[in-house]
Amino acid sequence: MVVPEHVLDVSITKTYDDFELNVTFQFDGGLIALFGPSGSGKTTLVNALAGLIAPDSGVIRISDVTVFDSTAAINLPPEKRHLGYVFQDARLFPHMTVEKNLRFGIKQIPDDERHVKWTDILKIMDLGKLLSRWPHTLSGGEKQRVAIGRALLASPRLLLMDEPLSSLDIKRKAEIFPFIESLRDQLNVPIVYVTHTVPEILRLADQVIVLDQGKLAAMGPVDQVLNRLEIQTGFEPSVFEPISELGTILTANVESHDEQDQLTILDLSGERLYVPRLALNVGSTVRLRIRARDVALARHPPKDISVLNCIKVNVVDVTNKGASHTDVKLRSAAGHEFWSQITRRSQRELAIEPGAEIWALIKSVALESGL
């Protein structure tokens, strides 16, 4: 079996009256998030991958199969690209039961090309109890699980998910997260996941592409991209909340749970963080976003305070912003870097300067895990 050089190899342009998409990137598997404000080109890009629109120029290869090439006049129709597509709304067939909706996906692929098993999808997406139900009797979360299962049963080379959780409330989103994680980890089906929310990226993505006005602003591992200062501060807060606010992405492991106080203790390369109880097993990996405005600073180890997370750090850099506040870059003994945002007065009175050894105080409730 020949292993493809890239799962996805894209270099395309698409121009409308007032908008141009111009992107080039490669993707090698896992789950990659397409992230950006409305109008940045996320859905245009996904529709081009799916064959729903034709680029003006360029090439799209999926698992070394050329599905679009403007020079060679290749433009495979959607049904020939062997992709799965999950939309914002489930789009189930209302006249079919859940089982018939799922089996419709199976019919889209010849027997000898199927690599996703019926039993695996029923187990991973927990659909066994829903097979006899009709779409109108399902909750929003159940409908999306069925839609995802149907797309996967077509044994796609690539699964496209266009803001699949945007119509769900917070509770329903939390119910769906573990299922998407399971299919990402167990089925080895590469996923392109469109979103405009940071928590979904933190919870689900291996890599992220940031689009801005049709251009690729950044691409790479989630923590590296979202920690870049120009990405965090380069967009209007109204369209890129909450990443327009200075903060840091960190990766930690679940060390233990404190059931009495409903806390989870995280191990951050030997440093401990306390967060509200997470529904994760001990040993699981979790990403956190610590906002700069939620990190207070102290010259000496604090006593008798309610903040649980106190970490000894060194000041790396101090940047004055505006008339009243200062951004302070910090580094812990374990080498983790993050930010604090304090007033200029506090910086002056505490003598916060590069090289200073101080304490960072992080409120546990201020940690964003996307969970």
Describe the structure.
It is a single chain. The chain has ten helices and 21 strands. The strands form four sheets. A six-stranded mixed beta sheet has the order 7-8-9-3-10-11, sandwiched between helices. Strands 2-1-4-5-6 form a five-stranded antiparallel beta sheet, with helices on one face. β1 (8-16) and β2 form a beta hairpin. The chain has helices at 42-50, 98-106, 118-124, 140-152, 170-186, 198-204, 222-226, 229-233, 237-240, 344-350, and strands spanning 8-16, 19-27, 31-35, 57-62, 65-69, 74-75, 83-86, 158-162, 191-195, 207-212, 215-221, 247-258, 263-268, 271-276, 285-291, 295-298, 309-321, 325-332, 337-343, 357-362, 367-368. α2 (98-106) packs parallel to α4. It has two domains: 8-233, Rossmann fold (3-Layer(aba) Sandwich), CATH 3.40.50.300; 247-369, RNA polymerase II/Efflux pump adaptor protein, barrel-sandwich hybrid domain (OB fold (Dihydrolipoamide Acetyltransferase, E2P), Beta Barrel), CATH 2.40.50. It has 371 residues and is α+β, with helices and mostly antiparallel strands.
Secondary structure: elements and pairs:
Layout lengths: L7 E9 L2 E9 L3 E5 L6 H9 L6 E6 L2 E5 L4 E2 L7 E4 L11 H9 L11 H7 L15 H13 L5 E5 L7 H17 L4 E5 L2 H7 L2 E6 L2 E7 H5 L2 H5 L3 H4 L6 E12 L4 E6 L2 E6 L8 E7 L3 E4 L10 E13 L3 E8 L4 E7 H7 L6 E6 L4 E2 L3
Helix pairs in contact: 2-4, 4-5
Q: Number of domains in the coordinates?
A: 2
The span between the termini is 39 Å
Spans of 5+ residues with little confidence (pLDDT < 50)? 236-243
The CATH architecture name of the largest domain reads: 3-Layer(aba) Sandwich
The residue-averaged pLDDT reads 87
Name given to the CATH homologous superfamily of the largest domain: P-loop containing nucleotide triphosphate hydrolases
Q: How many whole angstroms does the radius of gyration measure? A: 23 Å
**CATH class of the largest domain, anyone?**
Alpha Beta
Give the number of DSSP strands.
21
Range of helix content: 10-25%
SS-based class: alpha+beta
Number of helices, counting only DSSP H or I runs of 4 residues or more:
10
Instruction: Report the CATH topology name of the largest domain.
Output: Rossmann fold
Strand order of the largest sheet: 7-8-9-3-10-11
Summarize the biggest pleated sheet. Answer: 6 strands, mixed
